[in-house]
């Protein structure tokens, strides 16, 4: 059995949809929303008592928007999974947490990345001590619904929907865009091998944001809206590092990022135009 914390987000929904009914049990948010507290141990224990031996705890709950207070990121992205790991270790259960590849790619992380980097270091320490814990660093996800408004893809969709110019940097930043369903397959490949510690879910074929934007706006025939270089280039970003695909993911299919993102943007914009019943 897989016990899922955070079943309402993009990744959580995809994890639930990919497995047969009953194999993934998604906890109600009201069950775990206070598990970040120091005194949450007894509540977590009561939940774990019903888990069959060999179950896996997937902690997909998280605060993503870097504009939210740092305290929110620390509570949900660090303290909650740490409490779960403490109790799951005592119960003999594996825990999988999720972070971001930016943990290893930027020198001055925002509150979101900083909280995930702290979590990754904690998982590495627990794995070195012999606990069954895995921290999976995720690239940029798309698919499974409307992109978040604060993300690059969400901002592109907003500009395309409104027919207004999309201003961006020169776009030299490197990104891997992964369809969420492909990452779910990658997660299950990792679970099947029982990998401990920190692992980046990379396919090794990044694109620049410039290439991605040109492909999307060109594919939709809206090149005139794209304003490359209208904003300054971020000083702290990934412009050169390509993360290689780990051996455990050699058999996992990842669709083409540029074509996959274009297809997804088409579906999002098409859905937005459909009349409501």
UniProtKB/TrEMBL annotation:
Signal peptide: none annotated. Residues 3-193 form the NAD-dependent epimerase/dehydratase domain. InterPro entries: Epimerase_deHydtase, NAD(P)-bd_dom_sf. This is NAD-dependent epimerase/dehydratase domain-containing protein. The lineage of its organism: Bacteria, Pseudomonadati, Pseudomonadota, Betaproteobacteria, Burkholderiales. Pfam families: Epimerase (PF01370). It comes from Variovorax defluvii.
């Amino acid at each position: 059995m897989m016990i899922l914390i955070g079943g309402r987000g993009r990744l959580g929904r995809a994890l639930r949809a990919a497995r047969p009914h009953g194999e993934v049990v998604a906890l109600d948010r009201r069950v775990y929303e206070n598990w970040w507290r120091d005194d949450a141990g007894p509540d977590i224990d009561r939940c774990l008592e019903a888990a069959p031996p060999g179950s896996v705890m997937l902690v997909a709950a998280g605060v993503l928007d870097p504009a939210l207070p740092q305290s929110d990121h620390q509570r949900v992205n660090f303290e909650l999974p740490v409490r779960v790991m403490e109790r799951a270790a005592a119960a003999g259960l594996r825990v999988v947490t999720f972070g971001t590849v930016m943990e290893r790619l930027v020198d001055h992380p925002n509150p979101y990345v900083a909280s995930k980097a702290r979590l990754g270091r904690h998982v590495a320490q627990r794995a070195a001590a012999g606990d069954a814990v895995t921290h999976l660093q995720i690239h940029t996800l798309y698919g499974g619904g409307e992109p978040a408004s604060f993300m690059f893809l969400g901002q592109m969709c907003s500009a395309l929907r409104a027919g207004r110019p999309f201003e961006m940097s020169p776009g030299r930043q490197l990104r891997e865009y992964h369809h969420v369903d492909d990452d779910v397959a990658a997660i299950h490949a990792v679970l099947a091998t029982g990998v401990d510690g920190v692992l980046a879910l990379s396919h090794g074929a990044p694109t620049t944001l410039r290439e991605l934007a040109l492909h999307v706006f060109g594919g939709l025939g809206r090149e005139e809206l794209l304003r490359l270089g209208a904003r300054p280039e971020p000083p702290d970003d990934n412009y050169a590092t390509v993360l290689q695909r780990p051996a455990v993911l050699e058999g996992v299919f990842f669709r083409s990022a540029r074509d996959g993102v274009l297809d997804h943007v088409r579906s999002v914009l098409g859905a937005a135009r459909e009349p409501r019943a």
